[in-house]
Amino acid sequence: MSDRERADAVLEHVAVLAFLYYPGIEVDDPSYRLAEDIEWCLVRLGDVSDAERERMGTLFARAITDPTAAREELFTALADLDPVPTADHRE
After folding, report:
1. For tag attachment on the chain, is the N or C end more exposed, with fewer CB atoms within 10 Å?
2. 3-20 and 34-43 are packed helices; what angle lies between their axes, rounded to 10 degrees?
3. What superkingdom does the record give (predicted)?
4. Domain span at residue 52?
5. Which residues have a Cβ under 8 Å from the Cβ of 64 and sit 6 or more positions away?
6. pLDDT tens column, 1-12
7. Cα pseudo-dihedral 11, 18, 65, 55, rounded to 10
8. Is 22 helix (H, G, I), strand (E, B) or coil?
9. Would 55 be classed as within a structural domain?
10. Per-residue confidence at 90, pLDDT binned at 50, 70, 90?
11. What pLDDT does 82 receive?
12. Torsion of CA 8, 11, 12, 16, to 10 degrees
């Protein structure tokens, strides 16, 4: 998967979750967990460092709960994200 395809997949997941999220969802649906939604998005990132995973998880949470305020920062972070190099990674 190219970096662009990965970013698009992540953004698609975040957008769907942001569309479905609303304040008070936890009251209406006690089984709802924002952490599970964030993990669903993190899976699409593939291999990234733990620090990047933590940073992106925070951005995902903000983008899901307040998309307008967080969208630019999320786009920039995804564009700047570098995958973790692997032993068979060649340039």
Report:
1. C
2. 160
3. Bacteria
4. 3-80
5. 14, 17, 18, 21, 34, 37, 38
6. 678 888 899 999
7. -20
8. coil
9. yes
10. very low
11. 58
12. 180
